[in-house]
Structure formats: structure tokens, C-alpha cells
Amino acid sequence: MSGRLGRALGSALLAVVLAAVAMPGAAVAEEPTGRIASLGTDWGQTGPYEVNVDIGVVHTFYYPRDMGRSGERHPVVIWGNGTGAVPGIYSSLLRHWASQGFIVAAANTPTSNFAISMRAGIDVLEKWNADSGSPFHGKVDLEHIGSAGHSQGGAAAINAAIDPRVDTAVPIQPGPLTSPDLMDEPVFYLAGQRDLTVWPALVKALYRDSGHVPAVYGEVRGAGHLSSIGDGGDFRAPTTAWLRFWLMGDEQARGMFFGPGCGYCVDDDLFSGWDRNSKALQIPGPSA
């Protein structure tokens, strides 16, 4: 990252802090464990679970209060913050994912680029899932894990996906200190049309460097660099749909990304730019 970009990124997010793969033709690598109810196609709607938040030294965990209430296991999302930020800046978005049935392990570090703390979140959940005395015991779906993050954490989401335990990545306005060549999972790149910190062209370059995996690019109309903080803004619904498809096998979410005339492909109100690479185009849409 250039000195100018790093300083701009750090100062913008620090100000906010202080102020407050699957193979191309396949849907998911394996059948998700258990079934988590779908709420239809309003992906921005709060999910059916009440949410608990546990703040630790290394991670903050957001998770359904009554995990496994119907015998289901919950997929995992590991999260990376932007430069100078902490999970609380994104708390409403991370709570939203937990309400949808995900367990979110958010690294507390404000310098997440190398994804070390993010990947360590998986280690913690593996330990808790095996501990008969833990409330997470037997309730974590460790076969379905996604990495996500914003800005520097967006680059970290790609870096975290070199871990073979990670099944998909969602880089939101990702910084440049990453190499998509090292990952082999489906990836959903998100840019902001009016982002003057991480320009859409920079995100598009990462997308174009991901031809070896199914990759989708979405440019959120009117969004600046800080539009995704808080409750996720217009980034909330599409990221939720992507995670529900790849980690929960939610077939209603499939049609938003795959098949001819996919839902987001034609949503010009939400996206000012949209593209799918050749491997993404090979993934079938929903069956009639």
C-alpha cells in the first residue's frame, strides 16, 4: 500500500473509531450441517436468532443466543477490520450476520492485513466445538467457513482464504496488499462507486486477477469508503446472500448471483457496476 493510500485509509477509519472452491459447476463443497431457515429474499432483514456478543482480548464473537436450537450447526464467518478500526465499528453488520445464523469471529486487531488473528478465530472455535463444557460444543459448522472484511480487512479476507478451512471470501472495498493467486475459493468483490480511498478500479484489478476461481464483482451505487461500516449499508444484503448460499446452501440466494438474468445482475438501483468471470458463469442458476 502506498504511503498516501495508507495514511488516507488510516486517518479516515481512525476518525470513525475515535468518534464512536467449490468446483465451477457445484453449488457448495458439501451439504451444510443442519438447516437454518430462510427468510425469503430480503437479505437485509434481521434473521430469526437473538444475538449474543462476547468481547475478548483477541476476538469479539457474535453468535446466535440459542445455537443449535433445532439441531442445526452454525457456519462461521471470520472478520477483518479496516485500518485503525475495531469490530464495534461494524457491530450492526456482524450482529446481522449472527441473527441470520452465522457465528462471527471478529479479530480485534486494527491491523488485520496478514489475517493471523482472523485465522486464529477458527482455531478458537475448533477448540470450543470439541469442549463438552462449552456452549459452542457440537454447534459449530466447521465445514463451512467464510472470510470477510473491509478495507485493510478486505485484503485480509483474501489473505485468510489461503487457509484450507476457508470456503469463500467476501472482500469489501479491499486494500491492495494481497494476492488472489494464493486463494482457490469463490470470491465476491465489493467496491463503492464513490470510494476515493480504495478506488473501484483497484478492486476491479483484484477481481480480474481471480480468473482461476469463480469471482463476482459488484460496485455499490453511490457508496463511499465508509458506507459499509455500522450496519453495512447497501453492502449488507448482498454479502448476506452470498454467505447464505456458499455456507448454508440457501438456494434462494443462488439466483441472486448465478444463472442468466441473476437478481443482482439486473439490479441497477443497487449496483453501478457488475461482472462475473468465466468460472462464475459456469455455476448453474436455480432449477425451475
Commentary on this structure:
- This is PET hydrolase/cutinase-like domain-containing protein.
- Pfam families: PETase (PF12740).
- InterPro entries: AB_hydrolase_fold, PET_hydrolase/cutinase-like.
- Keywords: Signal.
- Residues 60-252 form the PET hydrolase/cutinase-like domain.
- The chain has 288 residues and is α/β, with parallel strands linked by helices.
- The protein has a single domain (3-20, 43-281), classed as Alpha/Beta hydrolase fold, catalytic domain (Rossmann fold, 3-Layer(aba) Sandwich), CATH 3.40.50.
- It is 29% helix and 20% strand.
- It contains eight helices and nine strands.
- The protein has helices at 3-19, 91-99, 116-130, 152-160, 200-208, 236-248, 251-257, 278-281; strands at residues 51-55, 59-64, 74-80, 103-107, 140-150, 168-172, 187-192, 215-220, 271-276.
- A nine-stranded mixed β-sheet has the order 1-2-4-3-5-6-7-8-9, sandwiched between helices.
- Strand 3, helix 2 (91-99) and strand 4 form a beta-alpha-beta unit.
- The longest helix is centred in the N-terminal third of the chain and has 17 residues, at 3-19.
- The radius of gyration is 17 Å and the shape is globular.
- It starts with a helix and ends in a 7-residue tail after the last helix.
